[in-house]
Amino acid sequence: MKITDARVIVTCPGRNFVTLKIVTDDGVTGVGDATLNGRELAVAAYLTEHVVPVLIGRDPMRIEDIWQYLYRGAYWRRGPVTMSAIAAVDTALWDIKGKVAGLPVYQLLGGRSREGVTVYGHANGDTVDDAMTEVSRYLSLGYKAVRVQTGVPGLATTYGVSKDKLFYEPADAAIPTEAVWSTQRYLSHVPSVFARAREEFGPSVKLLHDVHHRLTPIEAARLGKALEPYELTWLEDPVPAELQEGFRLIRQHTTTPLAVGEVFNTIYDAQQLIDYIRTTVVHAGGITHLRRIFDLAALYHVRSGSHGATDLSPVCMSAALHVDISIPNFGLQEYMRHTAETDEVFPHGYRFDDGYLYPSEEPGLGVDIDETAAARYPYRPASLPVNRLEDGTLHNW
Ligand code: KDG
Ligand code: MG
Q: Exposure string (b/e) for 313-330, b if CB count within 10 Å is 16 or more?
């Protein structure tokens, strides 16, 4: 069996997605997500210029060897662009292998370790009242876990609080918009949000909160401590994660669990001083490398909590669910619904029921790209916003 073609498809059914479709001489095809929010064309060029030419003629069954070839062979290792491109190839090859074997990919990964994949949804609102209404909406849909974000009094906008309730898209303009941030205002507001949520919704719902890397370690420690009475399942990205030493300081002060890693892209970024690791298929080298990261995490009692925002396409979500259902140390999976246009471009077989997602039972990943539909939605430049402090200093350490 040989790879005869590999197409890089860029489409914007509501937001930009980059997809790799690999074709074999047997007529079997596979798809992989390569979307890197705000940097989509960098990955598309990496694939088109440097990866596709070396794939043609290779045996698609040799997933591990092709992964190593792309990773080691480039000389320039790691980084989100490289690892998203490798991820797309790897994901598509697992899809092909599943189809050839006649099995859903999770069966190739060892089979089910659980019945369904527990997901969390995003409740957000400009006010605490609005956010609470959203929490109850998610609970009525069956969600067992909800991330809660609200506007911060005194700040015009807050990252992570979307204008639309069910759909979320932080990349809002071709040239990045600039928002104003105040740590003081934020820290004095957030505990009251979770006091209210616990009071209204009781002890059993899993509550989560994302700090989006806005604090220093000692500020994060203070927030974690203040949130302890409300028993969060996790506090996400409290600080930028490059300085691992910062997490030691946070943990010395609080037992609020920490979730980190949506911006990690290799096992070398993974660390022990957290509770949930948020790497996912598309940004961390595909199924092959993500499994290595999760196996390493398991040695340190760290569970998975994969990123699943809408900038990860249904191809990534399909692949993530095959990993989630099979690994021993699964924790939670983030799940944001895609728009109807996105679902039309990426027909998929995974389904949501009562707070759980279930991977497709079709051979392979159970997802495809409709290239005719994709062609109707041309690429639109869109960037993530940046933050400045009230005095104009560029924020985020
Ligand atoms: O592309 C960036 C988004 O995916 C990110 O802002 C979402 O932080 C995020 C999350 O936890 O979903
Ligand atoms: Mg996040």
A: bbbbbbbbbbbbbbbebb
pTM reported for the whole predicted model: 0.97
Cα R_g (the chain), whole angstroms: 20
Q: Point out the ligand nearest to the CA of residue 37.
A: 1
Q: What are phi and psi of 266, to 5 degrees?
A: -140, 170
Q: Hey, which residues are catalytic here?
A: 159, 212
From 169, 146, 293, select the one nearest 232 (Cα to Cα).
146
Backbone phi, psi, residue 167, to 5° = -115, 140
Closest atom of ligand 1 to CA, residue 170: 6
Mean pLDDT score, 19-43:
98
Tokens (6 digits) for 29: 């095809």
Using DSSP's 3-state secondary structure scheme, residue 309 falls into: coil
Q: Is the shortest distance between the CB of 334 and ligand 1 below 6 Å?
A: yes
Q: Give the position, in ligand 1's atom list, of the atom nearest the Cα of 308.
A: 12
Q: Are 179 and 392 in contact (CB under 8 A)?
A: no
Using a 6 Å cutoff on CB, does residue 309 contact ligand 1? yes
Name the pLDDT band for 168 (thresholds 50, 70, 90): confident
Q: Buried (b) or exposed (e) across 222-255, using 16+ Cβ within 10 A?
A: bbbebbeebebbbbbbbbbbeeeebbebbbeebe
The tokens 């980190």 sit on which residue?
Answer: 260
